[in-house]
Design brief:
Layout lengths: L25 H23 L23 H19 L4 H18 L9 H58 L7 H8 L19 E7 L10 E8 L9 E6 L5 E6 L9 E6 L2 E7 L9 E5 L5 E6 L9 E6 L2 E7 L9 E6 L2 E7 L9 E8 L2 E9 L9 E8 L2 E9 L9 E6 L2 E7 L8
Antiparallel strand pairs: 1-2, 2-3, 3-4, 4-5, 5-6, 6-7, 7-8, 8-9, 9-10, 10-11, 11-12, 12-13, 13-14, 14-15, 15-16, 16-17, 17-18
Helix pairs in contact: 1-2, 1-3, 2-3
Length: about 450
Amino acid sequence: MVEMKCWGAAKGKAMMPAPVRGFRNAASQISVAILIAVWMAGCATTASTPPDPSGDPGAGAPSGGGATGPTAGQRAQSAVEGMLMGAIIGSQAGPIGAAVGATTLLIYSAITGEVPLQGGGSSGTSRSEADREEELEEQIESEIARQGSLEAEIEAELRRQEELLRQIERDEALRTEGAAEQRDVDDETLIARADPRAAPAAPEERDLPLSIFEEEQRTIPKGKWDNAKEIDVLARSLDADRDGNPEEVRYHDAATGRILRKEEDKNYDGTIDTWSSYESGVLVEIQKDNNEDGEPDEWQRYAPDGRMATREVDRNYDGGRDAFFIYEDGSLAQERHDGNSDGSVDRIVRYEERAIVGTEEDRNHDGRMDTWTSFITVDGKEVIARIEKDTTSDGKPDTFETYEQIAGKPTIKQRDEDRNGDGTIDVKSVYEDGKLKQREISDPALVPL
């Protein structure tokens, strides 16, 4: 083992041996630098672990938990690598530059145990880059999950719209069934009956001989028929089955002879279930008791032309009207529905030329419409063209979806969103065959989504 002395180490500075100062050329400087590096490494090692006066070889060794500097072998290795690095860098200035560069970095590496420019601090950068890549992957996965949720929402909306159309068809079937109760109808009424969106004609009065009726003078008290004063009437009753309960009673104004009111027992159970009101001898309203509880639950109003103008129904028989049908120019123009029977309309269906053109819905039942759907007719079938939604419940739409027909089914084509509620589209999503193809974001604050 070769032991190198370190003169002056105890005083904290190294003294260079005299022979070193004799070299002058570049090759000699490199050789001397190697000797200096080895010598300095030995000095640093000796200075860091002073001998124990007690003579115990292990007394000067650092404890296992303390920090230690580079070993002599590590310093020597670093010196050689530093010398090579300095030679490569300095070679661009010629042989002398290579010698000086090699000498300088050799000495530095021997003292510190580190090789300059080796990129030892890159691990933090690598970890930071890995973190960014992991975050980006998480954002991509989040967006894919969001897109899947959005597609599921669109599919649910389409199914809901299909159910809405089926509900409308069921309502039309009920109206057709009600119209089928009419008797002695003409050809025009038969045509109207074939189209449930045509305004039903008022039922015609049966021309019956007066001899089959029993007549009786009566006085109708004020307010009984919403009349402003007492009315003297002639009541004509028809008890066809002679059970003591008339199936029909007609009330005529005693002074003019015009019919004012008619009461009927349509199902012959002995209880009146239909009430018809007249003005100037013309039918204006029919009230019906459909659940046989003695109270009306359907109200039909007729226009002067003899066609239905409005129809209102208490479908759940709770005493409140929850379905309203409005007719204009002989055709159904609008439906209004209170689906949860809270007294507020939450669905409106609009018609033009007996075809659905749009619906409005209050889906969260807060008293304000939040979903608007537009329909077009393709090959005689009503299909969804556009859906607008108010997702923030501020009374204004902020999401707009456009649909196209693919293989006979409505498929989303484009979705525009006003995310910040300023009235301007912030996110535009374009779809192809129902799958997201492109997304444009105009507000950088919305990135990432």
